[in-house]
Write a structure and sequence with these properties.
- By secondary structure, this protein is of the alpha/beta class.
- It has three domains: 2-106, Nucleotidyltransferase, domain 5, CATH 3.30.420; 109-299, Exopolyphosphatase. Domain 2 (Nucleotidyltransferase, domain 5, 2-Layer Sandwich), CATH 3.30.420; 304-505, Hypothetical protein af1432 (Orthogonal Bundle), CATH 1.10.3210.
- 53% of the residues lie in helices and 17% in strands.
- A six-stranded mixed sheet has the order 8-7-6-9-11-10, sandwiched between helices.
- Strand 2 and strand 3 form a beta hairpin.
- Helix 5 packs across helix 14 (304-328) and helix 17 crosses helix 21.
- The N and C termini lie far apart (60 Å).
Protein backbone atom coordinates (compact mmCIF):
# COMPACT_ATOMS: atom_id res chain seq x y z
CA UNK A 1 0.00 0.00 0.00
CA UNK A 2 1.22 3.48 -0.94
CA UNK A 3 0.10 6.78 0.62
CA UNK A 4 1.02 10.42 0.16
CA UNK A 5 0.91 13.45 2.42
CA UNK A 6 1.47 17.16 1.83
CA UNK A 7 2.45 19.22 4.86
CA UNK A 8 2.02 22.98 4.53
CA UNK A 9 4.51 24.18 7.13
CA UNK A 10 5.69 27.60 8.19
CA UNK A 11 8.90 27.37 6.15
CA UNK A 12 8.40 24.61 3.60
CA UNK A 13 5.73 22.93 1.57
CA UNK A 14 6.62 19.22 1.60
CA UNK A 15 5.44 16.04 -0.07
CA UNK A 16 6.16 12.60 1.34
CA UNK A 17 5.14 9.40 -0.41
CA UNK A 18 5.58 6.20 1.58
CA UNK A 19 4.77 2.53 1.41
CA UNK A 20 4.15 -0.15 4.00
CA UNK A 21 7.06 -2.59 4.08
CA UNK A 22 5.44 -4.83 6.68
CA UNK A 23 7.34 -3.61 9.74
CA UNK A 24 7.58 0.13 9.18
CA UNK A 25 6.97 2.77 6.54
CA UNK A 26 9.47 3.33 3.73
CA UNK A 27 9.75 6.79 2.17
CA UNK A 28 9.90 6.44 -1.61
CA UNK A 29 9.59 10.14 -2.56
CA UNK A 30 10.41 13.28 -0.61
CA UNK A 31 10.11 16.81 -2.02
CA UNK A 32 10.25 20.28 -0.47
CA UNK A 33 9.53 23.78 -1.68
CA UNK A 34 10.57 26.79 0.46
CA UNK A 35 7.45 28.95 0.68
CA UNK A 36 8.07 30.72 4.03
CA UNK A 37 4.41 31.22 4.87
CA UNK A 38 5.36 31.76 8.51
CA UNK A 39 7.26 34.90 7.56
CA UNK A 40 3.97 36.38 6.34
CA UNK A 41 1.81 35.20 9.21
CA UNK A 42 4.19 36.10 12.03
CA UNK A 43 5.08 39.53 10.65
CA UNK A 44 1.91 40.62 8.77
CA UNK A 45 -0.73 38.54 10.51
CA UNK A 46 -1.93 37.20 7.17
CA UNK A 47 -0.68 35.35 4.09
CA UNK A 48 -0.36 37.41 0.93
CA UNK A 49 -2.36 36.78 -2.24
CA UNK A 50 0.89 36.14 -4.14
CA UNK A 51 1.95 33.34 -1.84
CA UNK A 52 -1.55 31.86 -1.89
CA UNK A 53 -1.29 31.69 -5.68
CA UNK A 54 2.10 29.95 -5.47
CA UNK A 55 0.72 27.56 -2.85
CA UNK A 56 -2.13 26.52 -5.14
CA UNK A 57 0.21 25.88 -8.08
CA UNK A 58 2.67 23.86 -6.03
CA UNK A 59 -0.12 21.79 -4.51
CA UNK A 60 -1.31 20.87 -8.01
CA UNK A 61 2.28 19.99 -8.97
CA UNK A 62 2.64 17.73 -5.94
CA UNK A 63 -0.74 16.17 -6.72
CA UNK A 64 0.43 15.22 -10.23
CA UNK A 65 3.57 13.60 -8.80
CA UNK A 66 1.47 11.60 -6.33
CA UNK A 67 -0.85 10.46 -9.11
CA UNK A 68 2.22 9.00 -10.81
CA UNK A 69 2.48 6.61 -7.86
CA UNK A 70 -1.17 5.67 -8.18
CA UNK A 71 -2.29 7.91 -5.32
CA UNK A 72 -5.63 9.51 -6.15
CA UNK A 73 -6.45 10.90 -2.73
CA UNK A 74 -3.78 12.94 -1.00
CA UNK A 75 -3.85 13.93 2.63
CA UNK A 76 -3.06 17.65 2.90
CA UNK A 77 -2.46 19.22 6.31
CA UNK A 78 -1.63 22.73 7.41
CA UNK A 79 -0.05 23.83 10.68
CA UNK A 80 0.86 27.05 12.49
CA UNK A 81 1.38 29.45 9.56
CA UNK A 82 -2.05 28.67 8.14
CA UNK A 83 -3.74 28.17 11.50
CA UNK A 84 -2.78 31.64 12.76
CA UNK A 85 -3.35 33.55 9.53
CA UNK A 86 -6.18 36.07 9.85
CA UNK A 87 -7.31 35.31 6.31
CA UNK A 88 -7.31 31.50 6.73
CA UNK A 89 -10.92 30.99 5.62
CA UNK A 90 -10.34 32.92 2.39
CA UNK A 91 -7.14 30.98 1.67
CA UNK A 92 -8.86 27.62 2.14
CA UNK A 93 -11.75 28.71 -0.07
CA UNK A 94 -9.43 29.98 -2.83
CA UNK A 95 -7.37 26.78 -2.82
CA UNK A 96 -10.44 24.54 -2.95
CA UNK A 97 -12.10 26.65 -5.66
CA UNK A 98 -9.02 26.80 -7.90
CA UNK A 99 -7.55 23.33 -7.34
CA UNK A 100 -10.33 21.18 -5.90
CA UNK A 101 -7.99 20.30 -3.02
CA UNK A 102 -9.12 20.41 0.60
CA UNK A 103 -6.63 21.33 3.33
CA UNK A 104 -7.07 19.99 6.85
CA UNK A 105 -5.68 22.65 9.19
CA UNK A 106 -4.62 20.82 12.32
CA UNK A 107 -5.47 22.19 15.72
CA UNK A 108 -2.33 23.01 17.73
CA UNK A 109 -3.18 20.37 20.37
CA UNK A 110 -3.86 17.82 17.64
CA UNK A 111 -0.51 18.50 15.95
CA UNK A 112 1.37 18.04 19.24
CA UNK A 113 -0.50 14.81 20.03
CA UNK A 114 0.66 13.24 16.76
CA UNK A 115 4.26 14.21 17.51
CA UNK A 116 4.09 12.89 21.09
CA UNK A 117 2.74 9.54 19.94
CA UNK A 118 5.59 9.21 17.46
CA UNK A 119 8.14 10.19 20.13
CA UNK A 120 6.68 7.55 22.47
CA UNK A 121 6.85 4.93 19.72
CA UNK A 122 10.52 5.65 19.15
CA UNK A 123 11.39 6.21 22.81
CA UNK A 124 10.03 2.83 23.88
CA UNK A 125 12.63 1.14 21.70
CA UNK A 126 15.39 2.64 23.87
CA UNK A 127 14.98 0.71 27.11
CA UNK A 128 17.94 2.25 28.92
CA UNK A 129 16.06 5.54 29.27
CA UNK A 130 12.58 4.17 30.06
CA UNK A 131 13.10 3.98 33.83
CA UNK A 132 13.46 7.77 34.15
CA UNK A 133 10.94 10.61 33.98
CA UNK A 134 11.50 12.37 30.69
CA UNK A 135 10.42 15.60 29.08
CA UNK A 136 9.11 15.46 25.52
CA UNK A 137 9.95 18.66 23.66
CA UNK A 138 8.56 19.79 20.33
CA UNK A 139 9.80 23.18 19.19
CA UNK A 140 7.69 24.12 16.22
CA UNK A 141 7.97 27.22 14.09
CA UNK A 142 5.10 28.96 15.89
CA UNK A 143 4.68 27.15 19.20
CA UNK A 144 6.48 24.93 21.68
CA UNK A 145 4.99 21.78 23.14
CA UNK A 146 6.20 20.19 26.37
CA UNK A 147 4.97 16.96 27.93
CA UNK A 148 6.15 14.95 30.94
CA UNK A 149 6.29 11.19 30.40
CA UNK A 150 6.43 8.69 33.24
CA UNK A 151 5.71 4.96 33.53
CA UNK A 152 4.57 4.65 29.94
CA UNK A 153 2.12 7.58 29.96
CA UNK A 154 2.11 11.33 29.42
CA UNK A 155 0.81 12.77 32.69
CA UNK A 156 0.86 16.50 31.91
CA UNK A 157 1.52 18.87 29.03
CA UNK A 158 2.04 22.53 28.22
CA UNK A 159 1.63 24.39 24.96
CA UNK A 160 3.44 27.72 24.70
CA UNK A 161 2.55 30.01 21.81
CA UNK A 162 6.09 30.82 20.77
CA UNK A 163 8.29 28.95 18.30
CA UNK A 164 11.60 29.23 16.49
CA UNK A 165 10.36 31.18 13.44
CA UNK A 166 7.85 33.27 15.35
CA UNK A 167 10.43 34.51 17.86
CA UNK A 168 12.86 35.31 15.02
CA UNK A 169 10.23 37.40 13.26
CA UNK A 170 9.34 39.17 16.50
CA UNK A 171 12.92 40.11 17.33
CA UNK A 172 14.38 40.57 13.84
CA UNK A 173 14.49 44.39 14.15
CA UNK A 174 16.76 44.05 17.20
CA UNK A 175 19.21 41.61 15.65
CA UNK A 176 21.53 44.19 14.10
CA UNK A 177 22.00 46.00 17.42
CA UNK A 178 22.37 42.87 19.55
CA UNK A 179 25.86 41.80 20.55
CA UNK A 180 24.79 38.19 21.02
CA UNK A 181 21.58 37.33 19.16
CA UNK A 182 21.09 34.00 20.99
CA UNK A 183 21.33 35.80 24.32
CA UNK A 184 18.72 38.29 23.12
CA UNK A 185 16.35 35.41 22.41
CA UNK A 186 17.22 33.82 25.74
CA UNK A 187 16.38 37.04 27.54
CA UNK A 188 12.98 37.06 25.87
CA UNK A 189 12.39 33.37 26.65
CA UNK A 190 13.43 33.83 30.29
CA UNK A 191 9.87 35.01 31.04
CA UNK A 192 8.80 31.40 30.55
CA UNK A 193 11.42 29.99 32.95
CA UNK A 194 9.47 30.25 36.21
CA UNK A 195 6.11 28.99 34.84
CA UNK A 196 7.83 25.94 33.31
CA UNK A 197 9.78 25.36 36.54
CA UNK A 198 6.55 25.40 38.57
CA UNK A 199 4.82 23.14 36.07
CA UNK A 200 7.64 20.57 36.23
CA UNK A 201 7.27 20.64 40.03
CA UNK A 202 9.13 17.69 41.55
CA UNK A 203 9.78 15.81 38.32
CA UNK A 204 13.28 14.36 38.19
CA UNK A 205 14.06 14.84 34.52
CA UNK A 206 17.30 13.27 33.34
CA UNK A 207 16.59 13.34 29.62
CA UNK A 208 14.52 15.43 27.33
CA UNK A 209 13.45 13.85 24.10
CA UNK A 210 13.03 15.85 20.92
CA UNK A 211 13.18 15.94 17.13
CA UNK A 212 13.32 18.49 14.32
CA UNK A 213 15.53 19.96 11.63
CA UNK A 214 17.22 22.48 13.95
CA UNK A 215 18.36 19.97 16.56
CA UNK A 216 19.56 17.67 13.78
CA UNK A 217 21.65 20.51 12.37
CA UNK A 218 23.07 21.24 15.84
CA UNK A 219 23.87 17.54 16.21
CA UNK A 220 25.79 17.62 12.95
CA UNK A 221 27.90 20.50 14.28
CA UNK A 222 28.86 18.19 17.15
CA UNK A 223 29.93 15.57 14.58
CA UNK A 224 27.23 13.20 15.76
CA UNK A 225 26.83 10.23 13.48
CA UNK A 226 23.50 10.70 11.75
CA UNK A 227 21.11 7.94 12.66
CA UNK A 228 17.71 7.23 14.09
CA UNK A 229 18.88 8.16 17.59
CA UNK A 230 21.47 10.73 18.67
CA UNK A 231 22.48 11.61 22.23
CA UNK A 232 23.80 15.05 23.21
CA UNK A 233 25.14 15.49 26.72
CA UNK A 234 24.66 18.72 28.66
CA UNK A 235 28.41 19.39 28.45
CA UNK A 236 28.48 18.92 24.68
CA UNK A 237 25.53 21.24 24.20
CA UNK A 238 27.07 23.89 26.46
CA UNK A 239 30.29 23.93 24.44
CA UNK A 240 28.29 24.29 21.23
CA UNK A 241 26.20 27.07 22.76
CA UNK A 242 29.32 28.97 23.83
CA UNK A 243 30.66 28.62 20.31
CA UNK A 244 27.48 29.84 18.56
CA UNK A 245 26.07 32.39 20.98
CA UNK A 246 28.05 35.27 19.46
CA UNK A 247 26.99 34.43 15.88
CA UNK A 248 24.30 36.18 13.92
CA UNK A 249 22.24 34.59 11.16
CA UNK A 250 24.41 35.99 8.35
CA UNK A 251 27.61 34.57 9.84
CA UNK A 252 26.07 31.19 10.54
CA UNK A 253 24.58 30.93 7.05
CA UNK A 254 27.92 31.77 5.39
CA UNK A 255 29.96 29.42 7.57
CA UNK A 256 27.69 26.44 7.04
CA UNK A 257 26.17 27.14 3.63
CA UNK A 258 22.57 27.41 4.80
CA UNK A 259 19.93 30.07 4.17
CA UNK A 260 19.62 32.99 6.57
CA UNK A 261 16.07 31.97 7.48
CA UNK A 262 17.38 28.51 8.38
CA UNK A 263 20.22 30.09 10.38
CA UNK A 264 17.72 32.25 12.27
CA UNK A 265 15.66 29.20 13.16
CA UNK A 266 18.76 27.36 14.36
CA UNK A 267 19.85 30.25 16.59
CA UNK A 268 16.33 30.51 18.01
CA UNK A 269 16.21 26.76 18.67
CA UNK A 270 19.63 26.97 20.32
CA UNK A 271 18.21 29.45 22.84
CA UNK A 272 15.09 27.32 23.39
CA UNK A 273 17.13 24.20 24.13
CA UNK A 274 19.46 26.10 26.45
CA UNK A 275 16.47 27.35 28.45
CA UNK A 276 14.92 23.89 28.67
CA UNK A 277 18.16 22.25 29.79
CA UNK A 278 18.46 24.81 32.57
CA UNK A 279 14.87 24.70 33.75
CA UNK A 280 14.58 20.89 33.69
CA UNK A 281 18.11 20.09 34.97
CA UNK A 282 18.26 17.41 32.28
CA UNK A 283 21.58 15.70 31.78
CA UNK A 284 21.20 15.07 28.07
CA UNK A 285 19.09 15.48 24.96
CA UNK A 286 17.86 12.41 23.10
CA UNK A 287 17.22 13.23 19.44
CA UNK A 288 15.04 11.09 17.18
CA UNK A 289 15.95 12.25 13.72
CA UNK A 290 13.17 10.41 11.88
CA UNK A 291 10.29 11.80 13.90
CA UNK A 292 8.13 14.38 12.11
CA UNK A 293 4.47 15.25 11.80
CA UNK A 294 4.34 13.98 8.22
CA UNK A 295 5.88 10.62 9.11
CA UNK A 296 3.61 10.27 12.14
CA UNK A 297 0.52 10.79 9.98
CA UNK A 298 1.76 8.43 7.27
CA UNK A 299 2.57 5.77 9.85
CA UNK A 300 -0.97 6.03 11.20
CA UNK A 301 -2.41 5.80 7.69
CA UNK A 302 -0.34 2.84 6.52
CA UNK A 303 0.07 0.88 9.75
CA UNK A 304 -3.13 1.74 11.55
CA UNK A 305 -3.37 -1.55 13.46
CA UNK A 306 0.12 -1.16 14.88
CA UNK A 307 -0.71 2.38 15.89
CA UNK A 308 -3.82 1.47 17.91
CA UNK A 309 -1.75 0.74 20.99
CA UNK A 310 -0.34 4.27 20.92
CA UNK A 311 -3.84 5.74 20.54
CA UNK A 312 -4.85 3.75 23.62
CA UNK A 313 -1.81 5.08 25.48
CA UNK A 314 -2.77 8.60 24.48
CA UNK A 315 -6.32 8.06 25.74
CA UNK A 316 -4.99 6.82 29.09
CA UNK A 317 -2.72 9.86 29.19
CA UNK A 318 -5.79 12.07 28.66
CA UNK A 319 -7.43 10.58 31.76
CA UNK A 320 -4.24 10.80 33.86
CA UNK A 321 -3.73 14.40 32.75
CA UNK A 322 -7.33 15.25 33.70
CA UNK A 323 -6.96 13.71 37.15
CA UNK A 324 -3.70 15.60 37.68
CA UNK A 325 -5.53 18.84 36.87
CA UNK A 326 -8.21 17.84 39.38
CA UNK A 327 -5.56 17.28 42.05
CA UNK A 328 -3.98 20.63 41.25
CA UNK A 329 -7.28 22.34 42.08
CA UNK A 330 -8.00 20.11 45.10
CA UNK A 331 -11.05 18.43 43.58
CA UNK A 332 -13.22 16.15 45.69
CA UNK A 333 -11.73 12.90 44.40
CA UNK A 334 -14.32 10.46 45.77
CA UNK A 335 -17.26 12.42 44.34
CA UNK A 336 -15.45 12.88 41.04
CA UNK A 337 -14.76 9.14 40.73
CA UNK A 338 -18.35 8.27 41.67
CA UNK A 339 -19.83 10.62 39.06
CA UNK A 340 -17.32 9.30 36.51
CA UNK A 341 -18.33 5.70 37.21
CA UNK A 342 -22.07 6.44 37.05
CA UNK A 343 -21.74 8.59 33.92
CA UNK A 344 -19.84 5.90 32.01
CA UNK A 345 -22.29 3.20 33.09
CA UNK A 346 -25.21 5.35 31.93
CA UNK A 347 -23.41 6.08 28.66
CA UNK A 348 -22.93 2.36 27.97
CA UNK A 349 -26.53 1.39 28.83
CA UNK A 350 -27.93 4.21 26.65
CA UNK A 351 -25.68 3.44 23.68
CA UNK A 352 -28.55 2.48 21.36
CA UNK A 353 -30.31 5.76 22.12
CA UNK A 354 -27.47 8.28 21.95
CA UNK A 355 -25.47 6.53 19.19
CA UNK A 356 -22.27 8.25 20.31
CA UNK A 357 -18.83 6.68 19.99
CA UNK A 358 -15.66 6.06 21.97
CA UNK A 359 -14.42 9.60 21.50
CA UNK A 360 -17.56 11.10 23.01
CA UNK A 361 -17.32 8.61 25.88
CA UNK A 362 -13.81 9.93 26.61
CA UNK A 363 -15.04 13.55 26.57
CA UNK A 364 -17.84 12.65 28.99
CA UNK A 365 -15.31 10.94 31.26
CA UNK A 366 -13.08 14.04 31.34
CA UNK A 367 -16.09 16.26 32.05
CA UNK A 368 -17.13 13.97 34.91
CA UNK A 369 -13.65 14.15 36.43
CA UNK A 370 -13.42 17.94 36.23
CA UNK A 371 -17.03 19.15 36.54
CA UNK A 372 -16.59 20.58 40.06
CA UNK A 373 -13.02 21.92 40.01
CA UNK A 374 -14.30 25.49 39.93
CA UNK A 375 -15.08 25.16 43.66
CA UNK A 376 -11.34 25.74 44.19
CA UNK A 377 -11.93 29.36 43.15
CA UNK A 378 -15.33 29.87 44.74
CA UNK A 379 -18.34 27.69 45.54
CA UNK A 380 -20.56 30.51 44.30
CA UNK A 381 -20.93 30.07 40.53
CA UNK A 382 -18.42 27.21 40.65
CA UNK A 383 -19.71 26.03 37.26
CA UNK A 384 -18.41 29.26 35.69
CA UNK A 385 -15.00 28.81 37.32
CA UNK A 386 -14.95 25.16 36.19
CA UNK A 387 -15.56 26.34 32.64
CA UNK A 388 -12.73 28.89 32.77
CA UNK A 389 -10.23 26.47 34.37
CA UNK A 390 -10.93 23.75 31.81
CA UNK A 391 -10.75 26.18 28.88
CA UNK A 392 -7.41 27.45 30.16
CA UNK A 393 -5.93 24.00 30.78
CA UNK A 394 -3.85 21.67 28.66
CA UNK A 395 -5.25 18.15 28.47
CA UNK A 396 -3.06 15.90 26.36
CA UNK A 397 -4.91 14.28 23.48
CA UNK A 398 -7.82 16.74 23.31
CA UNK A 399 -8.19 19.36 20.61
CA UNK A 400 -9.24 22.90 21.51
CA UNK A 401 -12.73 22.15 20.17
CA UNK A 402 -12.98 19.04 22.36
CA UNK A 403 -11.73 21.02 25.34
CA UNK A 404 -14.47 23.56 24.64
CA UNK A 405 -17.08 20.77 24.62
CA UNK A 406 -15.86 19.46 27.99
CA UNK A 407 -15.90 23.00 29.42
CA UNK A 408 -19.45 23.64 28.21
CA UNK A 409 -20.75 20.38 29.67
CA UNK A 410 -19.14 21.26 32.99
CA UNK A 411 -20.63 24.76 32.86
CA UNK A 412 -24.24 23.58 32.55
CA UNK A 413 -24.07 20.44 34.72
CA UNK A 414 -25.41 22.02 37.93
CA UNK A 415 -28.20 24.29 36.65
CA UNK A 416 -31.39 23.42 38.57
CA UNK A 417 -34.18 23.79 36.01
CA UNK A 418 -32.24 23.66 32.77
CA UNK A 419 -34.09 23.93 29.48
CA UNK A 420 -32.45 23.02 26.19
CA UNK A 421 -33.06 26.54 24.89
CA UNK A 422 -31.08 27.94 27.84
CA UNK A 423 -27.79 26.95 26.29
CA UNK A 424 -28.30 25.62 22.75
CA UNK A 425 -28.52 29.15 21.32
CA UNK A 426 -24.89 29.66 22.43
CA UNK A 427 -23.70 26.79 20.24
CA UNK A 428 -23.59 27.56 16.54
CA UNK A 429 -23.16 24.11 14.96
CA UNK A 430 -26.22 21.84 15.07
CA UNK A 431 -24.11 18.71 15.42
CA UNK A 432 -22.33 20.16 18.46
CA UNK A 433 -25.67 21.07 20.06
CA UNK A 434 -26.90 17.47 19.83
CA UNK A 435 -23.58 16.05 21.04
CA UNK A 436 -23.26 18.38 24.04
CA UNK A 437 -26.93 18.02 24.98
CA UNK A 438 -26.73 14.22 25.15
CA UNK A 439 -23.55 14.15 27.21
CA UNK A 440 -24.85 16.93 29.46
CA UNK A 441 -28.05 15.00 30.20
CA UNK A 442 -25.99 11.97 31.24
CA UNK A 443 -23.59 13.97 33.42
CA UNK A 444 -26.44 15.80 35.18
CA UNK A 445 -28.10 12.49 36.01
CA UNK A 446 -24.83 10.96 37.26
CA UNK A 447 -24.17 14.02 39.43
CA UNK A 448 -27.69 13.86 40.92
CA UNK A 449 -27.13 10.23 41.92
CA UNK A 450 -24.28 11.37 44.19
CA UNK A 451 -25.85 14.63 45.34
CA UNK A 452 -24.65 14.09 48.95
CA UNK A 453 -21.07 13.39 47.77
CA UNK A 454 -21.08 10.26 49.97
CA UNK A 455 -21.48 7.48 47.38
CA UNK A 456 -24.56 6.35 49.29
CA UNK A 457 -26.03 4.39 46.36
CA UNK A 458 -22.92 2.22 45.95
CA UNK A 459 -22.64 0.11 42.78
CA UNK A 460 -25.67 0.63 40.60
CA UNK A 461 -27.51 -1.69 38.26
CA UNK A 462 -28.95 0.24 35.32
CA UNK A 463 -31.53 -1.20 32.93
CA UNK A 464 -33.36 0.25 29.97
CA UNK A 465 -36.95 -1.03 29.87
CA UNK A 466 -39.65 0.38 27.61
CA UNK A 467 -39.75 4.13 28.33
CA UNK A 468 -37.96 3.96 31.63
CA UNK A 469 -34.35 3.95 32.75
CA UNK A 470 -34.39 1.79 35.86
CA UNK A 471 -31.59 2.63 38.29
CA UNK A 472 -31.32 -0.01 41.01
CA UNK A 473 -29.45 0.50 44.29
CA UNK A 474 -28.99 -2.01 47.12
CA UNK A 475 -28.07 0.56 49.73
CA UNK A 476 -29.54 0.44 53.23
CA UNK A 477 -29.17 4.19 53.63
CA UNK A 478 -31.90 6.78 53.23
CA UNK A 479 -32.27 7.89 49.57
CA UNK A 480 -34.79 10.75 49.83
CA UNK A 481 -32.16 13.35 48.87
CA UNK A 482 -31.08 11.38 45.77
CA UNK A 483 -34.70 10.90 44.67
CA UNK A 484 -35.31 14.64 45.10
CA UNK A 485 -32.18 15.53 43.09
CA UNK A 486 -33.21 13.11 40.37
CA UNK A 487 -36.65 14.70 40.06
CA UNK A 488 -35.05 18.14 39.66
CA UNK A 489 -33.03 16.98 36.68
CA UNK A 490 -35.20 14.31 35.07
CA UNK A 491 -37.18 16.75 32.87
CA UNK A 492 -34.04 17.63 30.91
CA UNK A 493 -33.13 13.95 30.59
CA UNK A 494 -36.67 13.14 29.41
CA UNK A 495 -36.56 15.93 26.84
CA UNK A 496 -33.23 14.70 25.44
CA UNK A 497 -33.76 10.93 25.44
CA UNK A 498 -37.53 10.53 25.72
CA UNK A 499 -37.30 8.25 28.75
CA UNK A 500 -37.85 8.73 32.46
CA UNK A 501 -35.13 7.80 34.97
CA UNK A 502 -36.49 5.92 38.00
CA UNK A 503 -34.51 5.12 41.16
CA UNK A 504 -35.41 1.80 42.78
CA UNK A 505 -34.13 0.69 46.14
CA UNK A 506 -33.87 -3.08 46.56
CA UNK A 507 -32.42 -4.38 49.83
Amino acid sequence: MVAGLINIGSENLSLLIAQDNGQDIEIIESLEYPLLLGKDTFSLGRITFEKTEVLGKKLLGFKRIAEGYGINKLTIVGTTALREAENLDFILDQIETKTGLVIDVLDDYEEKSHIYMELIRNFEKNRRYRKNDVLFVYIGTGSMGLATYSKGLIDSSQNIKIGSVKVSEMLKDLEENALYYSNLIREYLSTFYQPIKIWLNNKKIKTFVTSGNEIEFLSSLLNKEKGKVMLISYEEFQKLFDKLKSKNATELSQEHNISESKANSVLSALAFYKLLLEVSNAENILVFSEVSLSKALLYQKLLNRRYRRFFNLLQKSTIISSRNIGEKYFYEETHSQTVETYALKLFDVLRLLHKLGKRERLLLQVAAILHDIGKYVNIKKHYLHSYNIIKGSEIIGLSSKELDIVARISYFHSAQDLEIDDFSEQIEEHQDKILITKMLAILRLADALDVAHERKLGDLEIQLKNNQLIIITHTKEETLLEEWALRRKDNFFLEVFGIIPVLKKII
